[in-house]
């Protein structure tokens, strides 16, 4: 064998492959910056992989050029050689890390379906880059031990790659099977075609990665072992030199094949392929008018009453007394046209909600599958709570697919637990149009149901939980909630169709805390019917779901207000540090039109310093101020006794007059009648106080987020912030319950 000719052919092949790989990597990097929608995961992960592939191909491009110029001797001892090798190791680790991140992203997104908190993906990118870079620097030592400037002959690289390969198989196979299982369980007609394409894509990607990575490891390991037998390459026999050249050839071909084959397969990802086609051919493909008309038609069907108000019986009787003939549609199907539903049928700029849903359909498939899974879980949770409500009326224990166990601790209602075990077949029988017939069992533990039933009946609004959580009337809310992109605090929220109640996830620590204080909580609410504390109407734990154990509370929504009526929304703690949202606000309290539009359209929650600049004071009568402050003293004393802190006063300024007038003006011309309707509706709202300086404006008030105890985490947070700011007197939000209450009441006294 002519080793020189063989080597020359090898490097020409490597050079050609390297150029192709560089072009493929540069193409994705280019379209990543040109198509913002690719910034969503996994588009950003593909970008990181493309960077790694670009670096590795530049390494082989440089190496092959040097070899073809027969300048290896000088190159092997140059600093460029070691820079190139460090870059190679860095790129390999980078590609591997992003490959693992790709599979983990899919699984984690599904597992944490009800985690509303957005994970900062840029932190993941930063960690990936730092680890890869430092490992590459450490590997520089092993490179210097090698006579030739080649990774395949490194003393540690093959063993490292074997470990990485095995971990890849574990993660990739687990992720692939989990995704396939979830898709088969939750596929719908909408997702079926996309899901099949995605599963096929994942399978294809996994097979290609497995073959190429395994080939590279095997050939690199073989070259390493052969080199170990012949420590000094100059003393190798011609036969050994030939085998070493062949093994190195296949190792390099495997290495340069990966950044070509894998990107080509990645371009077949339905999410990426769709946006690339759209970008490349956007001027050639006319819009499908049938799709547009379908969207518009769907919008009109779902928002027939967008401009109308859902009137209660009291307001209707006022209209009837004045013999006004209103369009009959106003009084039809009150549930489907609630204030909360209308606030979601159109975005702030007037575009149909269906256009947002259309954009969601362009999301990566794994996002759509997560939304579908979230929708299923929400429906199951609501169905299980509804079954408990049905069980209060009639016994359904005779059904073999439904079982209720009553547990007592110390034989008291406060410690009572009802355990409902339900088969999904039973859910299908009771809620025909909402569940598939699957042989799955779910469990719900309801804590102190008798106690919370009493609290619900004692409540000012006397809510009908069965009506509030009815699956049929909450279909739009379930669909939209399933598409939520998350919240800041990490909890998941579901607001029902009439915006009167909400479901919220809680941690195991919060669950245990609530169980311990049920008795005190019950008596506080019973003895203080006008408490400002947002009332809890149920505590539940759910088991048997795909995402594991979930604990949730059912709460009365103090902000049961159409978002279109809200002027400003404040979260007040009495603290000054980091309690400002609009930092450019002038001390005069004036907002420019752009800021005002931003606040209203995006429903931005403002904080203490914003309030002092914009409002300065809650402008209500002195009588109301006294009543509110006295109740705040009682409520905060109760929270202090339980060790709670970090609670907030939710203060919402609502322009009810303008809102109702805009809804009724087309149907009612009599302004006096409109005012009567508004007054009747306002009197039925608890903790709603009229503004003295703005006609038609009202303040809605309540205490929220009150389950946080002053623990080690909060103590650490307090002193960490003081240390970072080098200010021992820094007024942080985190304080012990006594100091927190004291500061909170001082601030409330100031603004009331």
Automatic annotation (TrEMBL):
Keyword NADP (UniProt): no
Q: Where are the transmembrane segments?
A: 12-33, 45-62, 82-104, 125-144, 156-178, 198-223, 243-265
Keyword Lipoprotein carried by entry: no
GO terms for MF? 1-phosphatidylinositol-4-phosphate 5-kinase activity; ATP binding
Per UniProt, the keywords (alphabetical) are: ATP-binding, Kinase, Membrane, Nucleotide-binding, Transferase, Transmembrane, Transmembrane helix
| A single GO BP | phosphatidylinositol phosphate biosynthetic process
List each copy of the PIPK domain by range.
Answer: 374-752
Q: Name one GO cellular component term.
A: plasma membrane
> What InterPro entries does the annotation carry?
PInositol-4-P-4/5-kinase_core, PInositol-4/5-P-5/4-kinase
Kindly give the PANTHER family that the UniProt entry links to this protein. Answer: PHOSPHATIDYLINOSITOL 5-PHOSPHATE 4-KINASE, ISOFORM A, PHOSPHATIDYLINOSITOL-4-PHOSPHATE 5-KINASE
- What is the name of this protein? PIPK domain-containing protein
Task: Give the taxonomic lineage as stored in the record.
Answer: Eukaryota, Sar, Alveolata, Ciliophora, Intramacronucleata
């Amino acid at each position: 064998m002519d080793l020189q000719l063989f080597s020359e052919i090898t490097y020409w092949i490597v050079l050609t492959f390297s150029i192709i790989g560089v072009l493929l990597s540069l193409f994705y990097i280019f379209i990543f910056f040109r198509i913002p929608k690719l910034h969503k995961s996994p588009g950003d992960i593909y970008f990181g992989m493309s960077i790694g592939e670009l670096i590795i191909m530049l390494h082989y491009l440089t190496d092959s050029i040097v070899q073809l110029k027969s300048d290896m001797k000088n190159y092997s001892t140059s600093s460029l050689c070691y820079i190139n090798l460090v870059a190679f190791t860095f790129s390999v680790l980078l590609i591997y890390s992003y490959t693992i991140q790709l599979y983990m992203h899919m699984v984690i997104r599904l597992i944490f379906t009800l985690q509303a908190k957005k994970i900062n993906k840029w932190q993941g990118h930063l960690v990936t880059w730092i680890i890869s870079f430092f490992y590459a620097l450490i590997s520089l030592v092993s490179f210097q031990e090698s006579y030739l400037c080649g990774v395949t002959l490194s003393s540690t690289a093959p063993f490292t790659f074997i470990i990485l390969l095995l971990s890849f198989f574990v993660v990739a196979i687990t992720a692939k099977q989990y995704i396939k299982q979830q898709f088969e369980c939750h596929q719908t007609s909408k997702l079926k075609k996309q899901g099949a394409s995605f599963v096929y894509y994942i399978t294809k990607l996994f097979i290609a990665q497995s073959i190429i990575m395994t080939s590279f490891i095997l050939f690199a390991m073989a070259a390493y072992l052969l080199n170990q037998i012949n420590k000094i390459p100059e003393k190798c026999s011609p036969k050994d030199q030939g085998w070493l050249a062949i093994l190195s050839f296949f190792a390099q071909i495997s290495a340069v094949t990966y950044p070509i084959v894998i990107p080509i397969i990645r371009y077949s990802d339905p999410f990426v392929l769709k946006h690339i086609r759209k970008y490349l051919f956007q001027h050639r493909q006319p819009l499908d008018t049938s799709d547009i008309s379908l969207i518009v038609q769907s919008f009109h069907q779902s928002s027939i009453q967008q401009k109308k108000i859902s009137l209660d019986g009291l307001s209707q009787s006022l209209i009837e007394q004045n013999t006004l003939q209103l369009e009959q549609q106003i009084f039809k199907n009150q549930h489907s046209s609630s204030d909360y539903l209308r606030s979601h049928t159109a975005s702030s700029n007037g575009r149909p909600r269906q256009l947002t849903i259309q954009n969601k359909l362009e999301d990566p498939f794994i996002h759509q599958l997560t939304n579908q899974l979230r929708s299923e879980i929400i429906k199951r949770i609501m169905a299980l709570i509804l079954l408990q409500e049905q069980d209060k009326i009639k016994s359904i224990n005779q059904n073999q697919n439904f079982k209720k166990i009553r547990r007592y601790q110390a034989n008291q209602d406060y410690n009572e637990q009802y355990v409902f075990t339900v088969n999904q077949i039973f859910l299908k029988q009771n809620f025909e149009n909402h569940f598939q017939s699957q042989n799955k069992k779910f469990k719900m533990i309801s804590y102190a149901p008798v106690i919370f039933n009493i609290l619900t009946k004692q409540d000012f609004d006397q809510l009908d939980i069965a009506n509030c959580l009815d699956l049929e009337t909450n279909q739009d809310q379930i669909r939209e909630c399933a598409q939520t992109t998350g919240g800041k605090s990490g909890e998941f929220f579901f607001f029902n169709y009439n915006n009167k109640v909400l479901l919220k996830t809680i941690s195991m620590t919060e669950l245990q805390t609530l169980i311990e204080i049920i008795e005190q909580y019950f008596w506080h609410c019973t003895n203080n019917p006008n408490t400002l504390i947002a009332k809890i109407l149920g505590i539940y734990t759910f088991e048997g779901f795909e995402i594991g154990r979930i604990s949730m509370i059912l709460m009365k929504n103090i902000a049961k207000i159409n978002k279109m009526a809200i002027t400003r929304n404040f979260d007040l703690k009495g603290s000054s540090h980091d309690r400002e949202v609009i930092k450019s606000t002038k001390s005069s309290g004036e907002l420019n039109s752009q800021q005002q539009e931003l606040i209203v359209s995006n429903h931005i929650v403002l904080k203490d310093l914003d309030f002092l600049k914009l409002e300065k004071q809650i402008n209500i009568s002195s009588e109301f101020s006294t009543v509110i402050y006295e109740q705040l003293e009682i409520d905060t004393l109760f929270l202090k006794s339980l060790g709670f802190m970090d609670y907030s006063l939710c203060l919402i300024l609502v322009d009810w007059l303008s809102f109702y007038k805009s809804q009724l003006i087309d149907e009612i011309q009599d302004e006096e009648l409109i005012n009567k309707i508004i007054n009747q509706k306002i009197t039925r709202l608890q903790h709603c106080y009229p503004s003295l300086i703005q006609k038609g404006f009202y303040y809605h008030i309540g205490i929220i987020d009150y389950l946080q105890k002053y623990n080690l985490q909060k103590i650490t947070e307090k002193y960490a912030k003081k240390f970072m700011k080098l200010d021992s007197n820094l007024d942080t939000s985190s304080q012990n319950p006594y100091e927190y209450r004291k500061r909170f009441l001082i601030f409330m006294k100031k603004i009331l």
